[in-house]
Amino acid sequence: MDDFDDDTIPFVEVPQERQPRRVHALPELPPEPPPHAGRYSFVNAFNAGWDAFKEHYAILLGALVSYIAIVIVAGIFASLLDSGLAAVATSAHPVLAFLTPFQWTANFLVVTPLEAGLVWLAVRAVRREPPEIGDLFNGFSSYGRVLVAAGVPALIGFVATLPGTVLFWITFGQTVSFSNANVLASMFAYLVGLLIALYFSVRLMPAQVLVLDDRAPMLSGMESLRVSWRMTEGKVLPLIGLGITLYVIGIASAMLLCLPLIFFGGPLIAVVMAGAYSLLAHERGVAPIGDYTTCPFCGYDTSATDANICPECGNIIPGSGPGAMRPVLF
User: Fold this and answer.
1) Which residues sit opposite 260 in a β-bridge?
2) Residue 206: which residues within 8 A CB-CB, separation 6 or more?
3) Dihedral angle, C-alpha 167, 164, 110, 270, nearest 10 °
4) Which of 92, 95, 157, 214 has the smallest set of CB atoms within 10 Å of its CB?
5) 231 near 194, Cβ under 8 Å?
6) In 10 A of CB 227, how many CB atoms?
7) Position 5 confidence tier, pLDDT thresholds 50, 70, 90
8) 92-145 pLDDT, tens per residue?
């Protein structure tokens, strides 16, 4: 062993793409921690959203107007294409006239990443990070991951409501099948499908923002769905209640010639959703927005220790200060 020569061992540099993906440093938060940083609740989500609404109203309004303009332009082009397709398809079967494949495609490929970017901009506002209008287009920078995170819940919803939809077509498309029993059966099947779709939609709702979040683990589209499922565990009913409230705000503001929806309802809905996401992500140890006094994984009181590893469950407690690292994937 004395004759061992270190020079005989070649140095092999690990390629950059082989380096660990989840050890990047967190962006530093402003000196004053975001308000309401703690556990998720209906009130905390609204309070966090309202504070961000007042502080960053101009940028939120500008982002929403830009979003609406792009959606309208994409919708016009898709409608023109669908109209041409419907004129040809109607001769084959009348039901085909109601299909809008280009509208669906535009919604998925254009609107989906824009929606993720809009909520991400609002998340930055809630965290008191300086939001920029360019954040609206961040969904396109992680395009594939955003589409996977949005496409899987959409596919689940489509499959869940498909039996009810088919029964509706059979019942109302053919006179011989029209009966009270068939109507009730189709309504029941569709309602069950909607409930299933709603459940999965709520459980997987944070996934589209998770893939953009620079304070969360670096996730693929499928990993973001798994983390989202963990984040929303035990929170389904409170999140549904929040969603219903935001839906009522949207409908009420849209009924007044849509202007209140643009200038009030839309920005408020975005920041309240962002507040809910930020609080859930912090509470579950996914994306910290402040320091932890209890372990986000088991609830153990860690205020008496300076270690970043929970002595109870052994999980790494993510930090939020300078030099803190992004949380690891569970």
Assistant:
1) none
2) 224, 227, 228, 231, 232, 277, 280, 281
3) 150
4) 92
5) no
6) 23
7) very low
8) 555 555 667 888 888 999 999 999 999 999 999 998 888 999 999 999 999 999
Q: What is the 3-state secondary structure (H, E, C) of the chain?
A: CCCCCHHHCCCCCCCHHHCCCCCCECCCCCCCCCCCCCCCCHHHHHHHHHHHHHHCHHHHHHHHHHHHHHHHHHHHHHHHHHHHHHHHHCCCCHHHHHCCHHHHHHHHHHHHHHHHHHHHHHHHHHCCCCCCHHHHHHHHHCHHHHHHHHHHHHHHHHHHHHHHHHHHHHHHHCHHHCCHHHHHHHHHHHHHHHHHHHHHHHHCCCHHHHCCCCCCCCCCHHHHHHHHHHHCCCCHHHHHHHHHHHHHHHHHHHCCCCHHHHHHHHHHHHHHHHHHHHHHHHHCCCCCCCCCCECCCCCCECCCCCCCECCCCCCECCCCCCCCECCCCC
Tokens of 145: 């991951």
Give exposure, 44-73, as e/b (b: 16+ Cβ within 10 Å).
bbbbbbbbbbeebbebbbebbebbeeebee
pTM, entire model? 0.80
Max Cα-Cα span within the chain:
95
Q: What span, in angstroms and rounded, lies between the C-alpha atoms of 28 and 313? A: 27
pLDDT digits (tens, 9 = 90+) for 229-287: 999 999 999 999 999 999 999 998 888 778 888 999 999 999 999 999 999 998 888 88
Token pair of 21, please?
């993906």
Q: What angle do CA 161, 163, 165 make, to 5 degrees?
A: 65
Amino acid residing at 324 = A
- Residue 329: its pLDDT value, please? 54
Separation CA 297–CA 307 (nearest Å) = 15
